[in-house]
Amino acid sequence: MKTTRACIGCACLLAGMAGNIVRAQAPDDRDYVTQEQYDALRRDFETLKAEMRADRQNEPATASGQGEADGPTWLDLERTRLRMDAIEATLEESRAGLSNFMVTGFAFTRFVNAERMDSTFTAKFVPLFLWQPTDRLLFQAEIEFGLDGQGETEVELEYAEASYIINDYLTLGAGKFLTPFGLFAERLHPAWINKFPDMPLIYGHDGIAPFTSLGIYARGGVPVGSTMFNYAIYLSNGASLNTGEDEPDEAGMLHFENFSDINNNKSVGGRVGFLPIPEVEFGFSFNWGKVNPSGSEVGDVDAFIWGLDFTYVQEVDFLAGLFDVRFEFARSEVDDTVFDPMGAALFFKNNRDGLYGQIAYRPTKSGIEFLRDFEFVGRYDYLNLPAGAPEEADHERWSVGVNYWLSPSTVLKFTYERLEVEGEPDTDAFLAMFAIGF
Amino acid sequence: MFTRKSLFMMAVAGAAGCGTAALTGCSGDGQTTAPLTQVAPAAFAPRDSAALENAGARIWARNCIRCHNIRTPASFSDRQWGIIMHHMRVRANLTGEQHEAVLRFLQAAN
């Protein structure tokens, strides 16, 4: 544009000069241009020539490649820049933290000093591997590394599953997954999330609620009006009933580590959660299936396990802190059957139930800054076992503790517990844990 | 035994009731509790970037804390947040809209 203007200006100037010269050369025109006028016009002309030259140098080469013959064109430079950007992006993606694969998880060291038992330290390292090949596909696996009593390293595949997002409200998955039953297994089991150094009584080896399952699932969340529902339904190998043939003391117990199905019958289960507001959630869970091993003398035995849970977590002004309340109840009902451990017929009504209620308070809005990192926790839980079973003593436990948060995912926990087992002396215990989520 | 159990459960119920009563009126920060539709907009809602980030901040602040302490946006890189939010979408049964909103917020605030 500038060039065009300069050309027009230049042409006018030349035309003017030519006119003057023509007039000067005309024999009948004696009005000569003065030297001063000529010099001024000459200066203007030189200035315009310089501007035109400068404009031409700054002008990009045309697509036809007509640029400066003695150097790289603008197009060449642009191509090089794009190539360098691509190389830089490739290098960035290969840097740690910038690929679609990452390792997160948690680790902890725990100390337990219980009456009539040797005090001991334990430690575990639990990495969680996440790989997201596409926006819809996710593979996740959590592996638990620990030490057994003999100092050997124990490795356990906590879960390993692949999930695929179908749409905004539905995700399908398969593999070994944390069972969507209640709250603890799926959401609270990592040591840096659990408020206590140990699990509630209804979970674990002697518990009644499933922790992991092997199978397939469908899950998601659905907003309804001003509320929110979430759901999970699954089909899995299911629980197995301990018939007491190999472990007489555990006759009637359900085991959930049934990773190769024992009866060619799959169990079905799920959970529905309702959130009237984001801070409150109510849940109902169930699990139903056949639990007797194929060909076992106990015959066909079904088990139905169901549970209720409640969560309320909110920062409350008048308490100047974060208030966290949780409650879970679970009950397992197993069909009547006769067990035959050690050759002696044994019958009992095989129903079990248990619950835990937990409160935590952290003065996050306290005027004393030091106090904001402390958390005060209390928990009550019990486990009722069937009368007449080899293991029939009911358990009841009280726990109180203080946690100190070094960072949002690093915590020191100190807990005092009293365990009351029916027919046995009470057991007091002190537990401490250092847990870190990474 | 029964008395202590009852007392504890009453305390839990009382605490929950107390909190719920506080919730019905206002949230912890003294503001009127926003309806969940505001933090979980319907699928057909316009996907305006600023509105999404705003909704994402609210979902992040009010939902993540239901299970664990909130980690700051600076805890992970943008790419890592993408993977973690996918993981959390499955674990916490988030909708696609909630997932996108929280991710946008975390990456914008990072």
How many strands, which pairing sense, and closed or not: the largest β-sheet of chain A? Answer: 16 strands, antiparallel, barrel
| Largest interface between protein chains, with number of residues from each side | A-B, 70 and 56 residues
- What is the N-to-C order of secondary-structure elements of chain B (H for helix, E for strand)? HHHHH
Question: Whole-number radius of gyration of chain B?
Answer: 17 Å
Taking all residues together, what is the mean pLDDT of chain B?
71
C-alpha end-to-end distance of chain B: 52 Å
Overall tally of domains of chain B: 2
Briefly summarize what is shown.
Chain A has 438 residues and is α+β, with helices and mostly antiparallel strands. Helix content of chain A is 17%, strand content 46%.
Description:
The complex is a heterodimer of chains A (438) and B (110). Chain A has helices at 2-25, 35-58, 74-93, 184-188, and strands at 101-114, 120-131, 137-147, 153-167, 170-178, 212-224, 227-236, 240-241, 254-255, 267-277, 280-290, 302-316, 321-334, 338-339, 346-347, 351-362, 374-384, 395-407, 410-421, 427-437. Chain A is of the alpha+beta class and 438 residues long. Chain A folds into two domains: 1-57; 107-125 and 132-137 and 161-437, Beta Barrel (Porin). In chain A, the strands form three sheets. Chain A has a 16-stranded antiparallel beta barrel with strand order 1-2-3-4-5-6-7-10-11-12-13-16-17-18-19-20. A two-stranded antiparallel sheet of chain A has the order 8-9. Chain A has a two-stranded antiparallel ribbon with strand order 14-15. In chain A, a hairpin with a 5-residue loop joins strand 3 (137-147) and strand 4 (153-167). In chain A, helix 1 (2-25) packs antiparallel against helix 2 (35-58). The model of chain A is unreliable at 16-29 (pLDDT under 50). Chain B is mainly α and 110 residues long. Chain B has two domains: 1-26; 34-109, no CATH class. Helix content of chain B is 65%, strand content 0%. Chain B has five helices and no strands. The model of chain B is unreliable at 16-46 (pLDDT under 50). The interface between A and B is large, with 70 and 56 residues.
